[in-house]
Fold these 2 entries.
Entry 1:
Amino acid sequence: MAEPIASFASVATTAALFFSGALIMRGAGCTINDLWDRNLDPHVRRTRLRPIARGAITPFKGIVFTGFQLLAGLAVLVQFPLPCLAYGIPSLALVTTYPLAKRVTYYPQAVLGLAFSWGAIMGFPALGIDLLSNSAALTAAACLYASNISWVVLYDMIYAHMDIKDDANAGIKSIALKHEHQTKQVLTGLAVTQVALLGAAGMAAGAGPIFFLGSCGGALVTLGIMIKRVNLKSVKNCWWWFVNGCWITGGVVSIGMAADYISRSLKEAESQSTPDGRELDA
């Protein structure tokens, strides 16, 4: 028997909490990154005027501000069911150490993806689904997590092209430097991987055709357009696609998911009604 679909109220509340938590923790991640990179940022044209890099804010004040950000993130986290604490706290290690990756590997974007995609796992226990006892949910969570990692690496590779010359001079490693002459091929591979894993997550979760057409198909089209049109030699163009491309692809994926959720909810409600429309007794 299929799992009952979560109520609109629980989905809406959970989504609002995740949005708030993501906003707060993204800010904390940026502050931590600026603290680690305070001696590197002055050598990169785009980042040289960041508050800590230019000396407008001391590292100590940055640490204090980070503490408040993390406390705010914790305040959001405790609103979720208790198991979410066990899933959420380990992500802090990735958020904290990500900036170090660019010093030792050409693939720091992969570490960023591991950190920023963590919500894909937490969404299941947030709705009361035990991943350890539900193999289908575990498969869906793993595929969704991996899909989002591919997405993060894809977008951050475009982002990294804005600083490619300065990064090379400053000794900062990135996937853009490693694959400078094969970037669009790599981006294409990441896009295909992202959509394939998103589809696999949908299959494991029992998604309907609206999800596959809207979310997966929409993502494939929007990513394809972005990869074709982005001018990797233009800082301004890379920035435009980094900012807007994220909303475009994220938007079609979200709309497809929402439409599929509404469709499945209506079908479930209909199946629980008698032929004359009266609700069956529980």
Note: The chain has a mean pLDDT of 89.
Entry 2:
Amino acid sequence: MFDTMTLTKIVGAFCGALLVFLLGGWTAQIVYGAYGGHDDHEQAYSIEVEGGDEGEAEEAVPFEEVFASADAAAGERVWGKCRACHMLEDGANGTGPHLYGVVGREVAAVAGFGYSGALADAADVWSPEALNGFLENPRGYAPGTSMGFAGLPKVEDRANLIAYLQGIGS
């Protein structure tokens, strides 16, 4: 039933289908590639909005005031974002160093954990203010840090988390 000619026809059909598929993709890229990119063109029509930029900017509350009224119980809920990489038990490192007694501890002080050099240059001690800056934007606070977390944008979340961590190990 299968002879050399049948096998040659099957391989030829497969190669022909592959060629048609590749040529179709190449043609589509040429045709739609020239018209598909909108990055280098101006917007054709803009809708003007009244009073969009004139609104009052939200007054930023200083971290010290927010931290003074921080809720450690709410910080425990925020801790869920950290738990994937950090542990709260003394000496139990995960992907990141343990956070037992981190508030007031020297930066890069956990023995046996390989810190990035950028983190050691960022601060001397993990004060609440230093933790606030780091937790807001880790890569902005310590450029070159190996911590992949994007940060906590809300000052209330950061203050609550720091209050929770302050109660652990103190």
Note: The mean pLDDT is 83.
